[in-house]
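[agent] plan:
  1. take the single chain provided in the ticket
  2. run structure prediction with default settings
  3. attach structure tokens to the ticket
  4. add a short note for the reviewer (M.T.)
[agent] executing step 1
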Amino acid sequence: MSQAEKPRKRRLLTAEVIVSKALELADEEGFDTLSMRKLAGSLGATAMSLYNHVAGKDELLDLMLERVVAEIESPVVGCHWEEMMRRRAHSMRQTLLRHRWASTLLISKIAIGEAIMRDIDATVGCLVRAGFTYAQADWARNAIDSHVYGYTMQELNFPVEPEEFKAAAAQYLPMISKTDYPFMHEAAVQIIEGKYDGITQFSFGLELILDGLKRWVVDV
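[agent] step 2 finished; step 3 output follows
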């Protein structure tokens, strides 16, 4: 890099550029492998130059999670609560599938960025406006989020791909005693015979939660 190019490179280095590159690297390789030095190298800069825009890895993580949450479709207060919760849940799952590293960090870190607070406020507001108490709205939001996180994390980490379920069932069937585990044995047989694919649908659990929440509101 020439001396003339160096000032231009420094001018182009912004917090937004840094966070975008960090997201790209985390999505490709996982957050655990991300370091300020590695990030700087991918930007053609020095690690010290990043600290002019981001205080450190903790702040970088906060900014990255903010960008992730900003991709989620938040509810519109005043619109039908059930449809808003459904759309938010599906959007949240798709966002977490795009950013495979984010689920664990979002549930293990207290983050109070603008996008995160805006999503919480809109979700609680939508439910309260529909007739839920503040306590019920908080419980409802957490129940839905727990389903999204749990399903998505299992989806990302399950040891067998959906298209391999039938082959896996056939492989393990001899280990499942029909005498000791009759129902598990029959479930495996049904997967092998194609009567059931073994895949749990995200919407199944979500709709159970939404149906359960309806009892709290008079007019649905």
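[agent] step 4 note for reviewer: The domain at 69-216 is CATH 1.10.357.10 (Tetracycline Repressor; domain 2).
[agent] ticket updated
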